Amino acid sequence: MNRICLCLPTNRACSATLTAINDEAAHAAQRFGADVQLLILDSSDDRTRAEHARIVAGLHPVPGVTVHHVDESGQRAFLRRTIERAALPEPDRVLDLMLPPTVSYGACTNRAFLLAAALGCRSLHRRDSDSTYQLHAGNPVFPVHHELPWLGGPAAEATAGGLRTDLDPALLGRPVSLAGASFIGELSVDIGEIRRMDEGVYHDVVSLWAPGDWPEERKRQLVEESFTGAGTAPFTGDRATLTVVDPMRVDMCNIAFDRAIYERIPLPPATDTIGSDYFLLHLVHDAGLPGILHNRHIENFHTPERRTDTGFPAYQRRFVKFLLSMLYFHDVYDRMAAEGAGLLDDRHRVRPDRIVEFLRGSTGLDRGENVWRLDRVDTAYRKLGGRYATFAEQLAVERGQLLDKAKSDVEDYAYLTEVWPALMEAART
After folding, report:
1. Concatenated DSSP letters of 54-90
2. Could you say which residues of the chain have pLDDT below 70?
3. Can you tell me the distance from the alpha carbon of 238 to that of 294, in angstroms, rounded to the nearest whole number?
């Protein structure tokens, strides 16, 4: 039986999402005969977690669906056992990278990857707590419908089964390594207020995630496309294509990976950094691994916490850290794109040693481009005034720390990637 992990990491109240994702699990079990391990990784506060536990206890039981609601103490205990079994030389460092004290989009998914391996799953299907399923003719539009049939099998099987394809025939022997779609609704990054206040400032800030040497026209196109997902048009009917999936066309709230990807390479564990969980999308693309791009987009919404007096500066800092991370990741992406099929071994599996080499190589870059990025953010936010100007004042105090952290985050990622195979083996056993 095809055992899969349908995963929902959360640190916020999401009772409706818990009920909805259980319905998606039921669809996977009943329609495709999957053995679904529904994994809820709960980092919420005590009161919210207790409410989640009440919701989980009241979920209607479904044959073929097993629900795991794991709080941070349970996650920590699992990690300690796994790290001890792996006999790693810096156990405390690994634990901190896997379960840091602050928000890490990559680390929460890395914990899901390890738990999926421990549960014997063949794939991981990730959703987010600040999104919901579209409805079509009164029924929810579940992405798992396109994720399950072909994931992990040779691409040739999917084309033989009638799946539309634009894949190079030379790639048909490689495994289908991901399946994904995007989102509709609000921007994936909560910076719409900046665009409403000043379109010019919005362009200046968003363009900072492009490489510094890009021409202005290419940056303009990136800004227009950034964080918009699939727009706002609702689902009207299925479209799915076997292809090498463009990372800009899918989102981590609506993604599924074959185990051969995440059991070999983790995600960046950077804390307080938006977009730190997107690396594997680029890796699958640059290695020329097939994927399924479909249109069962999830509906995105923003929670109000990001706009409170405490939530606003915390969220803006995550956005700035994302901009600074791109100095290093653009370099790594360029190296991966140049390497192409060299990222794979003779069994079409990604090679961790090459990724570690590229990550370590990027840390020698001059950080002058990031100094320039911080200068541009400072100018832009002061122009907006109000709480943006106040945040710019805080940013000025933290400049050196932020520059150092952007580099050390990549060093930490290289280290975690190096020890990941031992961690995975320990989790599986």
Report:
1. HHHHTSPP-TTEEEEEEEHHHHHHHHHHHHHHHT-S-
2. 1, 303, 305-306
3. 7
Return the closest-CA partner of residue 167 out of 63, 105, 241. 241
Q: How far is CA 107 from CA 67, 215, 394, in A?
A: 21, 34, 26
pTM above 0.85, yes or no: yes
pLDDT in tens, 332-344: 999 999 999 999 9
Residue 384 CA to residue 197 CA, distance in Å, equals 7
What is the C-alpha to C-alpha distance for residues 153 and 388, in angstroms, rounded to an integer? 49
Q: What is the reported pLDDT for 130? A: 85
Closest CA to 288 of 356, 334, 349, 359: 349
pLDDT value of position 1: 66
Return d(Cα 267, Cα 409) in angstroms, integer.
Answer: 12
Six-digit token string for 333: 């992406």
So what's the pLDDT on residue 204? 96
CA separation for the pair 190, 2 (Å, rounded): 37
